[in-house]
Structure prediction request, 892 residues.
Amino acid sequence: MSNLQPRPVLGEPARYTFPKPQRVKAGGGTVVAIDIPGQPYVAVRLVQTAGGAGEPLEHMGVATLVNEVLEDGFDGNSSLAPALERYGAEWVSRIGWDSFITGVDAPANRIKDAVSLFAAAVRTPALRTEDVVRRRDQLVERFWLEASVASTLAARTIGGQLFTGRYATPLSGGPVHQQELTPETVRRFHADNIASVAGTLVVVGDLTGVDLEEIGRTVFGDAAPAPQRRTVAPEGAPGELPRVVVLDRPGSVQSAIVLAHRAPARAEVDLPKVEGMSDVLGGMFTSRLNMELRERLGYTYGVGCRFDLRRDSGVFVISTQVEAPTTAHSVTATLEQIRKLQDEGVTESELNAVRESNTVGMPVSYATAGRLAGALVESVVHDLPEDHVDRLRAGFDRLTADDLRDSAREYLHPQEAVVIVAGDAESLRGPLEETGVGPVTVRDPETLWT
Amino acid sequence: MQELVTTNGAAGRITQYKLDNGLRLIVAPAATGQVAAVNLWYGVGSRHEVPGRTGFAHLFEHLMFQGSGNAAKGDHFDAIERLGGDINASTSSDRTNYYETVPDHALDLALWLEADRLATLRDGMSQEVLDNQRDVVKNERRQRYDNVPYGTAFERILAHAYPEGHPYHHPTIGSMADLDAADLEYVLSFHEAHYGPDNLVLTVVSNLDPDDVHERVQRYFGGIPARTVTAVAPDAVLEGPLGGPKSEVVKENVPAPAVFLIYRVAPYGTREFDIMQLASAVLGQGQGSRMYRRLVVERGLANDDGGSSADLVNFRYTPGLFFVSMIAREGVGGEELETAMLDEIATLAEGVTEEELERARAVLERDHLQAISTPGGLADALGSCTQLFDDPELVYTWPERWADITTDDIVEHAKRLLTPENRLSLRFEAEAEAETAEPAEA
Prediction:
């Protein structure tokens, strides 16, 4: 038989300090950079504030379309990506409710060339009519392709169930609003919000020989500093809560379930308390929801929860996909886990898991250029102090079991939730009504955004 | 061609060890500090499964997290998550991979957990956990195959591209019936047959001293005996073309028609594979590729958000697949799209420009270098090159494989391989619109 060692006892972890970023002013913008010697791919991200939340209601989805059409480049006709590919670089873009992110990942020794192409694409893109129309029409069709996946369908339904105003419609504007966007609207949005606004440039990688000020000047040009942002809390959607909405997918062998309710804005919460509590409920493999629905009941491949915290409000979401006949019980078992957490709080072991994973685990969290860049982008989007990562660690270090129990009581609101189920309505309606969670309505997915 | 990225002098800093029990250890430096990426490649995959036992290698991967002689169910995940670690596993036809990236003070714990389930998994196994994970895997199958549009495409492609009884005829997930039939006795025998240190490549990427890492691995794994009998993989040899033209039309509830065109090519690691990988990049990788330029931008026939319509399936021990797929735009029929794709594929045999080849090389090199730019990604690539090719240094020299391939090489291979005799066509049509489509045949 084998000769095995006893389980090792861990020593003290080395103390981790988030790298202090360099800050370089260039024209109307700021470059924020972290040097990682030996990291040959540099992540470059331009952070601007023109996300979906600030779009005028008559032009919902325009930020998404502009973000997409920038990839046609300075010369138009989808010319940017092939040009970047010659430098071994790759275009990166992401539109959020509070942010408009563009960038490149480029080899350190080709960063100057790649950034020149990038800057021309963002500041002076062709925005040709035929490119805008092509990208727009593809976005509309892709919306339905993606919504044919049950989990995506359920997730995209959340906004309309919880909010009125901009958040009631998906970030891309949904198929109807997106289809109405014109090339002129795109050009105007770009001129007002992207071309003329400097923003903040995040640069992470091996910066040996990289002139940050020169890169900043290339990207910012003569664009003006970003204007002050205003936030106005959105209104909720009408209707009785809690309630169940079934999105009919006849014959589905699984149901995609989302339980969602509104939450405060990011700036209004003590993040370690909220995220720590969310970790216990559904943020890790060993979280309560996953241990119950997957590891004990075998209903699902996985379940999780998270807070999506924006500048003016937030959403709490639990999501999973379960075998169809277990749908109703999955909903009540989920609600039971919330109730238990609120009533009984967390165990000492759970508290320690949350504290340790968010403190000891920091070298892993920031082990790649992309993740470091992500932390810097987040700090720009939410106006966080330079040492916000270290402050977060201190917050997790201070957490107590009472904090997490109180957080569960303060921030989890099953009585104000909407349960969205994408699945076979005919077989699900009865069992879902029998749960007594709330009134059950059935919707045809094709009518959701038309 | 100019080198895109210098490799940070990392080549030559790989250290290799072999324990007396056959375990191969690869140690390499990390680009960021204070972490240890631990990666295990076991030389067992779904190719080792026999008829009636499909899906077993993958189900077994799940069971490896369900407790062993000295770790309770869930303990492995719990211990690593507490450290903020990245942890998971995956199974393919050719191998089973387990990994965790942890703060480097926890390297010993990660090694101990891995050693314990290698040595004593059979002591922790029970009917209860088997039943639970069988249900979980069946839900994974529903989520990835049965409840998503086009989800069964790959399963259908394998069934057509590899003959009945061939070890690559079925997908890693297996069938519901075979999952139902899995029994505890077979679980135990599977572990005994395939899970030995002599079938394992263990990679550690960190900034710790290689000899120190070796000493720790020796401590935890050195006492585990090698397998007494080495499992033999079923014969996967296949000669000649795919036996086409084959075609299948599937009528399902899909949002738009989709077309998959498949050709048989030589196994991963051969020069033919490398040439066809460049051909696939010319044809369908990136927005500078032919399929994107012609069918997405110019003709508006296909919906594609970034240009990823062609690639290779990289089986190591049997011929791989040249794989082209697209989804039709509104108002475009599946047959129309298929004809347009075939026309575009045919252009490869007519010629490739130097500029196209340069772009293709740059795309492949970029993807490779990005993949190994993280500690976990580097560890995985080292494990792969060692388990499949017995040479970890290949990780750093891989792009050189494409350096001397010429446009003539691509044209010659396209003429020989992208032919009707070597082709499988799989088309999905929306149920209501498929009335006039031809019946399925294979």
About this structure: Residues 243-447 of chain A form a domain with the Cytochrome Bc1 Complex; Chain A, domain 1 fold (CATH 3.30.830.10). Chain A touches chain B through 79 residues (CB under 8 Å).
